[in-house]
Amino acid sequence: MSRSPERSEPSGFPRLALAHATSVGADTLIAVALAGSIFFNVSADSARPKVLLYLAITMVPFAVLAPVLGPALDRTRGGRRLMVSLSAAGRAILCLLMAKHLNSILFYPEVFGSLALSKGYTVAKSSLVPAMVHNETALVEANSRLALIAVLTGLVVAPIAAGLQALTDARWVLRLAAAVNTAGIVTAFRIPRAERTAPPPDPTEQAELRAASIRLAATSMAVLRAGVGFLTFVVAFSLKRLHEPSWLFGLVIAAGAAGGLVGAIVAPQLRRRFQEETILVGALLLPAVIALFGARSFGRPSMAIVAGALSAGAAAGRLAFDSVVQRDAPEAARGRTFARFETHFQLAWVAGAFVPVIVPGGLPGRPGFLLLALGLGFAGLSYFAAIRAAHASSPTRR
């Protein structure tokens, strides 16, 4: 049976998907280079100041994005596509500079610039997705496909980056990232130009931005992002304390990537039976239960299992959250809305990461897993109670 015209996929989505794969590939290369130069080649005590500086640097780009970039993307014709291309061009230049200044103080402001441009791309991409699908029901599927592309790209590129760094050094990984970003400029300009949405939100749209569905989903997603940042450094410092080989941390990362892949695949299937809010509740509670069992029998297998479960929950939760915003937020304000929430989520990730980093020697794994389980479980139950209360007080609104 032929596919009906109204359900056919817009021609722009494959082009956005290609640009997304290019951007994720470049980010993966940069992440491998940063990991080798900031954390994993030094002792835990030496790594802590560098990690704290890196975490502080990651917060600044979002403080700039929220008030400036979002409104600019919403009010400029083709601004979202332009941001994608400028992000790729800027990161290509900065990767070359980072390779040149790897052991210089200039390296950190260049990292800052790269992070700012990367997050600018994230905001622009999230704002472009609604223009690439025909209706609300396709939003989760579109977000899922982009997340799946991101995971698969990371799985392909990360071993290449690690092998190149082992054979040479981080400089060549950054130079390869510059080449990938250069290709990203071409893919960005092939994305169809989105319509300009100049008018600012009216009072009704402002009320929609403050809707309970968006606020509650954002809070839940922030908890998930904080959990990811927290778990990342709990595992990293636990492995360093136990003098485990570096490849074991790579195995935990691979388990997390596999979990993200599962979350991206499962979320659209769940959406056919459940609303986005229900998916978010499960994204919080399932990793909480697994982390609780992981705390009881802490070890190598539990690290990988908990990382996979949390990544799956974060991936499914993010797809559901994006769909809530794209469903309930006014189209004219999506750029600024995604910019604001990206700020909150990154700050949540940094806040979660700070906890194990500031503890001398790092937070031990068993109490770390227990704290993670309690935080996710409390957030999941609170979110469930809140959406039940919101539906009960306003039964005619979704």
Describe the structure.
- With 398 residues, the chain is mainly α.
- It folds into 2 domains: 10-190, Up-down Bundle (Growth Hormone, Chain: A), CATH 1.20.1250; 207-398, Growth Hormone, Chain: A (Up-down Bundle), CATH 1.20.1250.20.
- The protein is built from 13 helices and no strands.
- The protein has helices spanning 12-38, 44-75, 79-100, 107-128, 139-167, 170-189, 203-209, 212-241, 246-271, 276-296, 300-328, 334-358, 365-393.
- Helix 4 crosses helix 12.
- It is globular and about 60 Å long.
CATH homology superfamily of the largest domain: MFS general substrate transporter like domains
Q: Give me the CATH fold name of the largest domain.
A: Growth Hormone, Chain: A
Q: Percent range for helical residues?
A: over 70%
Oligomeric grouping of the chains: single chain
Q: How much strand content do the residues show?
A: under 5%
Q: List segments where confidence is low: pLDDT < 50 over at least 5 consecutive residues.
A: 1-10
The level-1 CATH class of the largest domain: Mainly Alpha
The ordered H/E elements are: HHHHHHHHHHHHH
| Distance between the amino and carboxyl termini | 34 Å
**Rg, nearest Å:** 21 Å
| Most strands sheet | none
* Count of individual helical segments: 13
- 3D shape: globular
